[in-house]
Amino acid sequence: MGFRMRKSFSVIPGVRVNLSGKSVGVTVGGKYVRRTVNSRTGSHTSFSLPGTGLSYTTAHHNVAKPAALAPRVRVPRSATLAPVPARALAVRPGMLAPRGEKELYEALEKGRYADLEGIASRHPELRHTCMVIDAFKRPDTPPTHRAVRAMFEELWASGYDPGADPFVHTYAPASHCTIDLAPGIAVTLPLSRTSIGLVLAEFRQEDGDLAEAAALVESLEPSAVAAVSLAELYGLLERWNAVVDLTDNITERDDLSIFLLIQRGAALRELHHYDAAREALRAALARRSQPVELRHHALLERGLTYAAEGKRALAKKDFEKILAEDGKFPGLSEALASLS
Questions:
Q1: What is the pLDDT of residues 173-199, one digit of tens each?
Q2: 65 vs 169, which has greater pLDDT?
Q3: What is the SS3 assignment for 267?
Q4: Ramachandran assignment for 124, one of left (phi > 0), alpha (psi -120 to 50 degrees), beta (any other)
Q5: Burial track 150-162 (b if 16+ CB lie within 10 A, e otherwise)
Q6: Cα distance between residue 270 and residue 264, in whole Å
Q7: What does the buried/exposed string (b/e) look like for 84-107 if buried means 16 or more CB atoms within 10 Å of the residue's CB?
Q8: Phi, psi values for residue 272, rounded to 5°
Q9: 131-157 tens-digit pLDDT
Q10: Residues 6+ apart with CB under 8 A from 4
């Protein structure tokens, strides 16, 4: 390994210059908000919410032609949900702030999440504030799944909206959460009533309460994100005509639209419109840069369509494209067995 030179020094308080053999960088900021500009890697801005261990980083990279595309990082369906502040402010409660507000801030600052229930009990006006923090911070494992779902059920039934919560507005005004919405689809949304509804729908879906989950998503403001959740639920409920109606006139080719096209293709196949199904799946496969999960999903559905038409050789070809990359892809073993 060759020698590397790196030097960092402070120019004025809050401003640091970083030198290395290949680049020059400047860092401005302090513990909670910091921006770094580098001649080789571009600029990065980092925010953190005091005491929670949560942080968020935005990056603006210099334009360069990579030798190869790096694989995208994806969140598994079972990942724990957590709010991520996109812009955290180093604001502390003032001397005249209510006692409950001070207690809650201190609990978050010191990471004492076990204190949340006690704070909610002593200060009922903060019950749902404590609950939404607890619901997003507590791991969703089998022992806690029911308790976490119960919190989201109460938050939804109460009409609670984090966007109108004075504590959230003051101390975490741009909190976000990441939701594994469907296989291959993870979305980051503002912490809001809509995100609470989508997470609750995921809990209901995991517990087999599909009709209740669909009814909840239907009540949300229409959006591409809600459409993805609803299309998956309609498919699980075998409401094929509803899937087709929901996915009419898709022109975009982003990840959400590709998922909707795959659901459309599967629904058209179940309605025995095979040519239309293959056309929708062809459109879903047209974008080269799509996530591998979505490509495998589209190939599986197209293979199932070929199989339904009696075109076994074409079906096997699509299934083996998946097999070459991921032999454990959900549904693949059953699809291959159906051809034997």
A1: 778 888 888 888 888 888 899 999 999
A2: 169
A3: helix
A4: alpha
A5: ebbeebbeeebbb
A6: 10
A7: bbbebbeeebeeeeeebbebbbeb
A8: 70, 25
A9: 998 888 887 788 889 999 999 999 999
A10: 20, 21
126: number of CA atoms within 13 Å, CB side?
22
Task: Tell me the residue type at 299.
Answer: L
| Ranges 98-102, 110-114, 276-280: which has the least confidence | 110-114
Is the pLDDT assigned to residue 27 strictly greater than 90?
Answer: no
**Which of residues 76 and 330 earns the better pLDDT score?**
330
Q: Cα(27)–Cα(261) distance, rounded to whole angstroms?
A: 44
Q: Tell me the C-alpha distance between 306 and 180, whole Å.
A: 30
Q: Which of 54-68, 104-118, 193-207 is least confident?
A: 54-68
Ordered structural domains, the chain, with CATH: 6-60 (no CATH), 76-216 (no CATH), 238-340 (1.25.40)
Q: How many helices (H) and strands (E) does the chain have?
A: 14, 9
Q: Which long-range contacts (CB under 8 A, 24 or more apart) does 52-61 make?
A: 52/108, 52/109, 52/111, 52/137, 53/111, 54/82, 54/83, 54/84, 54/85, 54/88, 55/84, 55/85, 55/88, 56/84, 56/85, 56/86, 56/87, 56/88, 56/176, 58/86
Token pair of 41, please?
């890697």
Pairing of strands 15-20, 83-85: unpaired
Q: How far apart are CA 253 and CA 259, in angstroms?
A: 10
Q: 236: burial class by Cβ within 10 Å (0-12, 13-18, 19+)?
A: middle
State how far the Cα of 156 lies from the Cα of 150, in Å rounded to an integer: 10
Token pair for 78: 């079972």
Q: Which amino acid is at 61?
A: H
pTM score of the predicted model: 0.72
Cα angle: 87, vertex 162, 169; to 5 degrees: 45
Please state whether 164 falls in left (phi above 0), alpha (psi between -120 and 50) or beta: alpha
Q: Dihedrals φ, ψ of 202, to 5°?
A: -65, -40
Predicted pLDDT at 87: 44
Q: Convert 88-135 into a string of H (helix), E (strand) and C (coil).
A: CCCCCCCCCCCHHHHHHHHHHHCCCHHHHHHHHHHCHHHHHHHHHHHH
